[in-house]
């Protein structure tokens, strides 16, 4: 069955050289939006031991199994590239070249190709050849150092800020911009998406505030990093938390009114009394449960919300009404985003099992040589 969809990228062909983390997530975003993404898996898997049937970042894709180190392997990838619009790879710098599928070979075969490269450190620089993960990339950009309490260690924001925000999203922006250029008659090109670059770029507003004297270069001391008593989280009587974001004065006024502290709360602009204000808010929130406070703030513009767990989030009334999460093939997962009025994205197929779509891709991409690739060994669950 062909990978057809209704998304705005329907008709765009993408080759993804299998990797882990931000590369697969970027390819998933393209697939969610309708692109025909063919993932080139390697024999033996990617190395993390994750059951491919549960790897949601491989939804909406199709998979072929090609050994790039075997004779004929690079040639098969180049055959796919010749028929593709975009390629995504996440190897260390120089690896794709050594395997025979680097930019020179691929663009030589398809001059209009957008060659997307996903790395942590980038294609050049002193650290380019070093191993790394999200936490190190966001550490050197100053981003990790600004997250957490003033009197504690930096707090790791999972791998969302580096891998996916600074990496995947910038790679997708880059390859789609380059595709637009190519389709206007320009040449194909290489997109170097480095997590350090994207993550640094995400802090542009913070750097502006720092330059203007409106941000202190230390965590837990600023308006948006938990230093402000009306922008942070507070524990409730049942050990859960409420999130408060009452920054503007009109929202703050409603917040202290609904919370019931408007008669005792110090003036919000008196920074010398922020500690006192925080204590007042803390003590008040500890008098009720999260559920009770959620009901109290229901319908208000106080900018207060309950802090939910991953399993609780899909059941929140607002997210449920918008179908922000969906269930496909028995797995609850975030629905495609953003939304389009005329060409909505969709979940068309479950995670691609390695090599499972070789015959289909060979037919749809007019590449019968793919069917000569040996069938994959059944993948064992982790």
Secondary-structure blueprint:
Elements: E1 13-17, H1 22-32, E2 36-41, E3 61-65, H2 73-82, E4 86-89, H3 95-99, H4 103-109, E5 114-119, H5 134-140, H6 160-183, E6 189-194, H7 195-202, H8 204-211, E7 231-235, E8 241-245, H9 249-259, H10 274-285, H11 290-297, E9 304-306, H12 317-322, E10 325-328, E11 331-334, H13 358-364
Parallel strand pairs: 1-2, 1-4, 2-3, 4-5, 5-6
Antiparallel strand pairs: 7-8, 8-9, 10-11
Helix pairs in contact: 1-6, 5-6, 5-7, 6-7
Which characteristics define this entry?
382 residues; disordered C terminus; single chain; three-stranded antiparallel β-sheet; alpha/beta
Largest sheet: 6 strands, parallel
Q: What's the helix-strand series?
A: EHEEHEHHEHHEHHEEHHHEHEEH
Helix content: 25-40%
Spatial ordering of strands, largest sheet: 3-2-1-4-5-6
- Molecular shape: elongated
Oligomeric status? single chain
Could you tell me the mean pLDDT?
93
- Rg calc: 24 Å
Structural class: alpha/beta
Number of helical stretches of at least 4 residues? 13
How would you summarize what this structure contains?
The protein is of the alpha/beta class and 382 residues long. It contains 13 helices and 11 strands.
Give structural notes.
This protein is of the alpha/beta class. The protein is 32% helix and 14% strand. It contains 13 helices and eleven strands. The chain has helices spanning 22-32, 73-82, 95-99, 103-109, 134-140, 160-183, 195-202, 204-211, 249-259, 274-285, 290-297, 317-322, 358-364, and strands spanning 13-17, 36-41, 61-65, 86-89, 114-119, 189-194, 231-235, 241-245, 304-306, 325-328, 331-334. The strands form three sheets. It has a six-stranded parallel β-sheet with strand order 3-2-1-4-5-6, sandwiched between helices. Strands 7-8-9 form a three-stranded antiparallel β-sheet, covered by helices on one side. Strand 7 and strand 8 form a beta hairpin. The chain is elongated. Residues 378-382 have low confidence and may be disordered.
């Amino acid at each position: 069955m062909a990978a057809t969809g209704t998304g705005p990228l329907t008709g765009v062909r993408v080759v993804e050289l299998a990797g882990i983390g931000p590369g697969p997530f970027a390819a998933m975003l393209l697939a969610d939006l309708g692109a025909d993404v063919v993932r080139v898996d390697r024999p033996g898997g990617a190395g993390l031991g994750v059951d491919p049937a549960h790897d949601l970042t491989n939804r909406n894709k199709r998979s072929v199994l090609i050994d790039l180190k075997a004779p004929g392997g690079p040639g098969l990838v180049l055959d796919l590239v010749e028929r593709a619009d975009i390629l995504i790879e996440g190897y260390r710098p120089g690896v794709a070249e050594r395997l025979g599928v680097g930019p020179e070979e691929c663009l030589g075969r398809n001059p209009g190709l957008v060659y997307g490269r996903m790395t942590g450190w980038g294609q050049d620089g002193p650290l380019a050849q070093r191993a790394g993960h999200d936490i190190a990339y966001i550490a050197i950009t100053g981003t990790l150092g600004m997250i957490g309490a003033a009197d504690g260690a930096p707090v790791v924001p999972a791998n969302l800020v580096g891998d996916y925000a600074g990496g995947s999203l910038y790679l997708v922006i880059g390859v789609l911009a380059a595709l637009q250029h190519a389709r206007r008659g320009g040449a194909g090109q290489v997109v170097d998406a480095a997590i350090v670059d994207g993550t640094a770029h995400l802090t542009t507003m913070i750097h502006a505030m720092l330059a203007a004297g409106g941000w202190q270069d230390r965590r837990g001391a600023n308006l948006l990093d938990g230093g402000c008593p009306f922008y942070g989280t507070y524990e409730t009587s049942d050990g859960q938390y409420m999130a408060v974001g009452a920054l503007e004065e009109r929202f703050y006024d409603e917040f202290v009114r609904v919370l019931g502290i408007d008669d005792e709360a110090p003036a919000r602009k008196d920074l010398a009394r922020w500690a006192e204000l925080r204590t007042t808010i803390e003590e008040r929130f500890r008098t009720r449960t999260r559920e009770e406070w959620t009901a109290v703030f229901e319908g208000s513009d106080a900018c207060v919300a309950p802090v939910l767990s991953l399993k609780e989030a899909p059941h929140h009334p607002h997210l449920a009404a918008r179908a922000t999460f969906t269930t496909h093939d028995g797995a609850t997962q975030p629905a495609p985003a953003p939304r389009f009025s005329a060409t909505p994205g969709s979940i068309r197929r479950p995670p691609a099992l390695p090599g499972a779509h070789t015959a289909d891709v060979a037919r749809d991409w007019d590449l019968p040589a793919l069917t000569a690739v040996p069938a994959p060994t059944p993948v064992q669950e982790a």
